Amino acid sequence: MDTLGGAEFAPETTYLNTASCGLLPLRAVEAVRALAEENATGRRGEGAGSFESVGAARASFARLVGVPAERVAVGSAVSVHVGLIAASMETGAEVLVPEGEFSSVVTPFSVRADLKLRYAPLDRLAEAVRPGTALVALSAVQSADGRIADLDAVRAAAAAHGARTLVDASQAAGWLPFDAGAYDYTVTGGFKFLVSPRGTSFLTVTEEAQESLVPLHAGWVAGEDLWGSTYGPVEPLAHSARRFDEPTSFLSYHGAEQSLALLEEIGVEAIHAYSTALAARFREGLTGLGLEPVPGDSAVVAVPGLTHRHPDLRRAEVDVSARAGNLRAAFHLYNSTADVDRALEVLAG
Predict the structure, then answer these.
(1) Which residues partner with 148 through β-bridges?
(2) Buried b (16+ CB within 10 A) or exposed e, 14-53
(3) Neighbouring residues of 181: CB distance < 8 A, sequence distance ≥ 6
(4) I want to staple 158 with a disulfide (CB 3.0 to 4.6 A). Which of 153, 163, 202, 287 is the partner?
(5) Closest of 178, 199, 205, 185 to residue 256, by C-alpha
(6) Residue-wise pLDDT tens digits, 178-190
(7) What number of other Cβ atoms are within 10 A of residue 309's Cβ?
């Protein structure tokens, strides 16, 4: 079965669940295995992994989303990055988010009782920005139903009112062309469409926003002189966004180095065209079955009210997910038209 990912992927099911977790390419699996074996035998010697691999992953991600590597911090999870932003906000600041937004984008703000959290429908988010709004936080692609946000409108409204912007690209980066430099902050989990191991995530911060972001979890890896920062207070911290790095999960980032390099080789534009064509075929087939998928051009396809068919698909080894009352399928570089047709065949049965 020919796919855009070629022999790098070896799914054993009809895997349409990248919106939950992406498949690892074989080269990433080999990198993780090699480092694990080195750590098990002591062959690596001092240290549990390579900062060069971390740097390569940082640089690859930066190129994929169109920002300098100096604006990228690495970490373990989106919620940690968002928590850092939330902790740095002034008392009384207003944060505007879409209704039904993914919890990792919302909760770090909601647990701060001294912040004002306000909600608006996604399609009216831009018009809900008002004087006094400090931050607009949203996902580029909604987790629950795959809708693509009107980021241009939100960015323009935020700029008109002096608000900053935070975009979660976890359901977008890797298939949707995305310019992270257009926003004050972006956060991205690596384990979905970036086909990287869990424990990888990326924060981008503009130079201006870096000035007010407090590096609350700074450790020795956040020092400008990495190996000269192992004892005592770290001085100085890195002059780049690296000062917001979390301590590194080397196994995860050795894998991510390979995964992100593969995405660069193929190209996001090619992946976008490929995955959205499969999604369009699936939407057309669903309509032919009398079902009503959420409209749009997303690689993530949701069908409201169809979650009762999730067990049928699972028994047929068609891997999708049920989220917020939707049956959700997601298409990526390792899927094929045969995968689309198999899912439709089960739903027609």
Answers:
(1) 141
(2) bbbbbbebbbbbeebbebbeebeebeeeeebeeeebbeeb
(3) 65, 66, 67, 71, 204, 206
(4) 163
(5) 199
(6) 999 999 999 999 9
(7) 18
